[in-house]
Amino acid sequence: MTTINTGARGPYKTGRKRQREIIDAAITVFGNRGYGGSTIKEIAGAAGVTPAAVLRYFSKEQLLTEVLRDWDQHQGFVDGAGPGLAFFRALRELMEYHIAHRDHLELYLTFATEASDAQHPAHDFMYMRYRRSLTKMRRRLTEAIDLGEVPFMDEATVAYEIECLHAILDGVEMQWLLNPDVDLVGVVGQYVDRAISRWSAGTTLQEPIPRIPVW
Amino acid sequence: MTTINTGARGPYKTGRKRQREIIDAAITVFGNRGYGGSTIKEIAGAAGVTPAAVLRYFSKEQLLTEVLRDWDQHQGFVDGAGPGLAFFRALRELMEYHIAHRDHLELYLTFATEASDAQHPAHDFMYMRYRRSLTKMRRRLTEAIDLGEVPFMDEATVAYEIECLHAILDGVEMQWLLNPDVDLVGVVGQYVDRAISRWSAGTTLQEPIPRIPVW
DNA sequence: GTCTATAGACTGATAGAC
DNA sequence: GTCTATCAGTCTATAGAC
Question: Assign residue A49 a region: left if phi > 0, alpha if psi is -120 to 50, beta otherwise?
Fold first, then answer.
């Protein structure tokens, strides 16, 4: 978005560092208060600068864009964990990553709910993010079938299984944010283990219902 | 909170009706923008009155209290659906209720995420609401065991099953808010059916892990 | 590159006309 | 009971000193 050199040397060095600090602060504040509830002043305070220093680089809406872009990049975390079932086994580590990066998780869930309104500036982004996430997970499960790790499942069952899994992830993450005593890794991990053994046993087909992926 | 007569007759009649309209408007706006992101002006606009008319009855924080109280009352919806497994079978109808009352659901999920910050004015309320919800559901499952509808499960397994179920509800609701094409009733209903038959088969004990309810 | 000062609009809330 | 008018405070954003 900005045309500042990414080389991070010379007179731009300090500026680039400031920008990172500001974006990190914005991630925290947006995650806490939501987009509408956040103020430049609070973001500036969290970054240890004045509001004017923040607005030197970003308008509030630019800050939203930068924050979403930054968060989206970090989401690629488990992409290398595939193929097939290995991806799902790595979800435990993803939960550990979330625990270590609470701000990112808070941002994601706050926006996912706040942006359900079509008018919200992050609505389209969150919709597409969700769509990509579900598509990726469906592909991983299909991959596991193709690799022979798991018996055949029709497309509707794959879609349903992934919708449930994604819902579990989001739901337990929500519980953990509200109450950190919740065993995020344990609950998710056990669900994944059970899902994998259910898939492997081929018992998922007992009650197929017509459903096509809607994302 | 207010000392206005609940009889809704005489000179108070119009006022009580206005108050309801304002609270309904606040539910919608809070659900869309979050608490911090909402303004009295927008709430007033949604209710079809001026900001001053809103502030005649409620401060912004009073409005939050009223909205949460109102939402909490409507949450008793499925309480009469028990005992035992009948409660879980009624979750399908709860989802239909949510579809018919999107605003209430949006409010719940927006606050559940926004209020994860301990500083949020609705934090304690949401924490307690979640706690009560999980406790109630655990009690229903224990009830089903006592009634002989379901074989014995230890306390840790009950807690885990309910955490997963609650997470599924929240997670699929989130998906539906972002994408109304999601089959909220179908996905949740099928999960519940499968959970019940899993509980009934007594296969849930295969992998007990030590866990105590943390809510 | 960051600051102070400030503009102009909007915030929650109050007072008083009708 | 609801309005207009208005308060002091805060919001995003800009201009210019250093």
Answer: beta
Question: What structural domains does chain B harbor?
Answer: 10-58 (1.10.10.60), 69-206 (1.10.357)
Which residue of A115, A171, A215 is in closest CB contact with B167? Answer: A171
Single-letter residue type at A168: I
**What dihedral angle (degrees, nearest 10) is formed by the CA atoms of A99, A94, B133, B147?**
-130
- Round and report the angstrom distance from CA (A118) to C1' (D9): 32
Q: How far apart are CA B56 and CA A26, in angstroms?
A: 36
* Cα of A70 vs its chain's centroid, Å: 11
pLDDT in tens, B97-152: 999 999 999 999 999 999 999 989 999 999 999 999 999 999 999 999 999 999 99
What is the pLDDT averaged over residues A43-58?
A: 94
- A175 closest CB neighbour out of B167, B174, B187: B167
Is the CB of residue B135 less than 8 Å from the CB of residue B166? no
Give B63 to chain A, closest Cα distance, Å.
16
- Residue B137 CB partners (closer than 8 Å, separation 6+): B87, B162, B165, B166
Contact A168 B168 (CB under 8 A): yes
Phi, psi of A39 (to 5 degrees): -125, 150
Q: Which of A106, A138, A175 is nearest to B114 (CA)?
A: A106
- Identify whether the C-beta of residue A113 lies closer than 8 Å to the C-beta of residue B170: no
> Which chain A residues have a beta carbon less than 8 Å from that of B181?
214-215
Which pLDDT score is estimated for A141? 97
**Side chain identity, residue A37:** G
User: What one-character DSSP code corresponds to residue B75?
Assistant: G
Question: What is the CA B190 to chain-centroid distance, rounded?
Answer: 20
DSSP state, B141? H
Buried b (16+ CB within 10 A) or exposed e, B149-165: bbeebeeebbbbbbbbb
* Residue B181 C-beta-side C-alpha neighbours within 13 Å: 7
Distance B129 CA to C6 C1' (A): 46
B30 CA to C15 C1' in angstroms comes to 28
Cα–Cα dist B39/B57, whole Å: 15
